[in-house]
Amino acid sequence: MLAEIEKIVRLSGKNVRESVDFTVTDKGTRENLVTSADIENEKFLKKELLELIPGSVFKGEEGDDVPVAKEGYTWIVDPIDGTTNFSRGIPEVGISVALMKDAQPYIGVVYNPFTDSMYTAQIGEGAFKNGKPIRVSNRSFEDGIFFTAWCAYDKRLSAPCFEVSERLHPRCNDIRRIGTAAVELCMLAEGAAEMYFEIRLCPWDFAAASVVLFEAGGHICSFGGPLDYDNPCPVIAGNSPKNLMSVADVVVDVFDGKRPY
Ligand code: LIP
């Protein structure tokens, strides 16, 4: 099953990489963009993945936001994670496909077609990048790279997100903002970075990468509890429980222990 999903995602990546005359519109705010390539790729992935598992449910960012099935298989798909990057020719994007089994994460595939980086994982079978096993690093917080963002889609939340960065930056090695949660979380899985925080992500941004990171020995959760695979939620991740908690403690303090939405 994983090999067949990888083949479909790789083919979709070729389509995205070769997309040139795409149109760009927004989804309500000037920062929340969608391109015709996103929409076309979601249509392609929906057709191929539903044919792969007849009777499965498809949950996608561009028009297919349905509940995860409590029993059986559900696809959670972001056809282009990092749409703003893609729309500007910044080659940091991830095609993200998760397969849930009885509402639990089962398989995750994240592919950057511009760097030909294929991250794959199945629960209990390990995590891989281009077929080679990957594992989180054992770096300390002080040596850690912290991936984060400042809530471009809802700038009322930007100030506290910057406060989290301001409080953590002196304690860690440095901060990065790549612009695609799926790829950033996979970079934690391969040991390129150590901590992650975003105050508001949708399930299709993190579902596939959460399987890759978990199978690579990483840790990921939401604000004081498990990830929500049905609704937008905060996401905190780390290469170790200690490093994850060092981020979570600051996040909880800055947001007064209350999720802002
Ligand atoms: C994006 C995420 C990114 C986040 C953006 C956006 P999209 O996904 O991957 O990390 O900061 O706000 O949600 O919208 O490009 O699929």
Structure description:
The protein is α+β, with helices and mostly antiparallel strands and 261 residues long. The chain contains 7 helices and 14 strands. The protein has helices at 2-17, 36-52, 83-87, 158-168, 181-189, 203-215, 241-254, and strands at residues 24-26, 33-35, 57-60, 73-81, 94-101, 104-112, 117-122, 127-129, 132-133, 145-148, 174-176, 195-201, 219-221, 233-238. The chain has a 7-stranded mixed β-sheet, with helices on both faces. A 5-stranded mixed β-sheet has the order 11-10-12-14-13, sandwiched between helices. Strand 7 (117-122) and strand 8 (127-129) form a beta hairpin. Helix 1 runs antiparallel to helix 2, helix 4 crosses helix 7 (241-254) and helix 5 (181-189) runs parallel beside helix 6. It is globular, with a radius of gyration of 17 Å. The structure holds L-MYO-inositol-1-phosphate (LIP). L-MYO-inositol-1-phosphate binds at residues 61, 78, 81-83, 149, 152-153, 179-181, 198, 205.
Strand residues, percent: 25-35%
Q: How many beta strands in the DSSP annotation?
A: 14
- Counting H and I runs of at least 4 residues, what is the number of helices? 7
Name the assembly state. Answer: single chain
Percent range of helical residues: 25-40%
- Biggest sheet descriptor: 7 strands, mixed
Instruction: Kindly name the structural category.
Output: alpha+beta
- Small ligands present: L-MYO-inositol-1-phosphate
Residue-averaged pLDDT: 97
**Ends: how far apart?**
36 Å
Helix/strand order? HEEHEEHEEEEEEHEHEHEEH
What is the topology, as strand order, of the major beta sheet? 3-4-5-6-7-8-9
What is the radius of gyration? 17 Å
Instruction: Please tell me what the overall shape is.
Output: globular
Low-confidence stretches: none
